[in-house]
Specification:
Helix content is 52%, strand content 12%. It is α/β, with parallel strands linked by helices and 301 residues long. It has 3 domains: 173 residues, Conserved hypothetical protein from pyrococcus furiosus pfu- 392566-001, ParB domain (Alpha-Beta Complex); 58 residues, no CATH class; 48 residues, no CATH class. A 5-stranded mixed beta sheet has the order 1-5-3-4-2. A two-stranded antiparallel ribbon has the order 6-7. The longest helix is centred in the first third of the chain and has 17 residues. The radius of gyration is 24 Å and the shape is elongated. It starts with a helix and ends with a helix.
Length: 301
């Protein structure tokens, strides 16, 4: 949650900057423009108008209410994008459903990405640079891909060429945005991995996704176990409460050797192995100091 708090604080600071008439930003060459492009800014909803050329004119009321309820509970996961028109006046580029749902629940502000008159190339560079960062979670990467496709008007093929990623990789990330917002939040907070998300997205109905998501957390299912549960859902129309696990006993040699390693390292050691000698050795640790102690025993350094 620290990441979200930091971004919100940054957004409020930029919001105050944009309300300063002495430093109105109209071009990427203006002072402080670099602080706006590519960052999230908290904007007053009253300062935003809808795009009169928005191709979508019909919005499903029930779906809008569901989105509004989700935003009220979890906040807005994906900011909208606006174009700066005049001093403290903006026009929607993308995210009208999110904008309408936010108004529906009475929010005063909304997180937004701001486009300014000649920022096409600057925005693209900022987004691509953002994607190259190492600390992004899968949902942040997916949202960056989606922004490049929607705001820069790139096809997945062109995006693949620009960022040097396979088109299938981009598609896999974008599919994660079909997950229920609660599951997206769980992935961002590290409760499940991208592998779990890729399995869950094969279930279309979001309530069924959530049902399985709760079981993943309760049972600590691996990605393979999740994939098995999804297959079971498609075959039987429901997800099992538990999965029957098949395991083969670890040969005596490995069990005895594992016990010796456990005593030597003075910590829990898990050994899994088959008769043909293939397996894995798991050595858990709880603190950095314990890791260093184990490392010194193993390497001598």
């Amino acid at each position: 949650m620290a990441r979200a708090t930091k971004k919100q604080a940054l957004g409020r600071g930029l919001s105050a900057l944009l309300k300063d008439p002495e430093n109105d930003i109209r071009s990427v060459s203006d002072k402080n423009a670099d602080k706006v492009v590519g960052n999230i800014v908290e904007l007053d909803l009253e300062a935003i108008s809808v795009n009169p050329f928005q191709p979508r004119s019909n919005f499903n009321d029930e779906a809008l209410k569901e989105l509004a309820a989700s935003i009220k509970e979890l906040g807005l996961i994906q900011p909208i994008t606006v174009r700066k028109m005049d001093f403290n006046q903006y026009q929607l580029v993308s995210g009208e459903r999110r904008y309408r749902a936010s108004r529906l629940i009475g929010l005063n502000t909304i997180p937004a990405y701001i486009r300014i008159a000649n920022d096409q190339e600057t925005l693209e560079m900022a987004l691509v640079e953002n994607i190259q960062r190492q600390d992004l979670d899968p949902i942040e990467i997916a949202l960056s891909y989606q922004r490049l496709i929607e705001d820069i008007e790139l096809t997945q093929e062109k995006l693949s060429e620009r960022i040097g990623k396979k088109r299938s990789t981009i598609t896999n990330y974008l599919r994660l945005l079909r997950l229920d917002p609660i599951i997206q939040t769980g992935m961002r907070d590290g409760f499940i991995s991208m592998g779990h998300g890729r399995a869950l997205v094969n279930i279309e109905n979001k309530s069924d996704q959530l049902d399985l998501y709760e079981k993943i957390l309760a049972n600590q299912w691996s990605v393979r176990e999740t994939e098995k549960a999804v297959r079971n859902f498609h075959q039987h129309g429901s997800t099992p409460k538990t999965l029957q696990k098949t395991s083969t006993p670890t040969p005596a040699f490995f069990r005895e050797s594992g016990q010796e390693i456990k005593e030597y390292l003075n910590t829990d050691v898990e050994v899994k192995a088959s008769e043909d000698g293939k397996g894995a050795l798991r050595i858990p640790f709880r603190t950095k100091e314990e890791f260093r102690r184990i490392k010194k025993l193993i390497t001598g350094d």
